[in-house]
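Why do we bother with holo predictions? Because pocket geometry can differ from the apo form. Keep that in mind while you read this record for heme C.
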Amino acid sequence: MGLKWVLLFIGLLALGGCRLVFPPPEVQRGEQLYRQYCQSCHGDRSGAGRLPYAPPHNEQGHTWHHSDGNLIALILDGSGPMGEMMRQMQGVPAEAPRMPAFRGLLTEDDARAILAYLKTWWTPEQRRFQERTPMMP
Ligand code: HEC
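The structure, written out:
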């Protein structure tokens, strides 16, 4: 193997390391938005600080089962009639907080940035599965 290839290999390794230490700007912005608008109900990556009935978004949660399109709609418009049905099925008390609609407060771009951040919490298998998940009507 020539020196050129060894250097290229080292360069790629360094790039990979940088992505871990310095996440892409969209992910950093998503983390800030998440802390500001979501964490008080959904808790942090480990799920700590979560309100009862607010689901965690980490690899133990259910969030990664939904497509990007459905997740963005849910963030902008709230959980809607489907969410109401799930609450009833799970026996969630009526007065427990609901997933708010963030339209007007957050843009679609903001929702995408938050999602980009949440995806860093999922396993590679979950990310591959979620990428191929079709949008539900
Ligand atoms: C006032 C508390 C509250 C806040 C703030 C909040 N959520 Fe929620 N969220 C909930 C609750 C409760 C649910 C469960 C559905 C329901 O009961 O409405 C939920 C459900 C969700 C779901 C569906 C998860 C699944 O597996 O089906 C997603 C995704 C979500 N929230 C993302 C967010 C994001 C992103 C933010 C910040 C922009 C946010 N939430 C802010 C309370 C909150």
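The first helix runs from residue 3 to 21.
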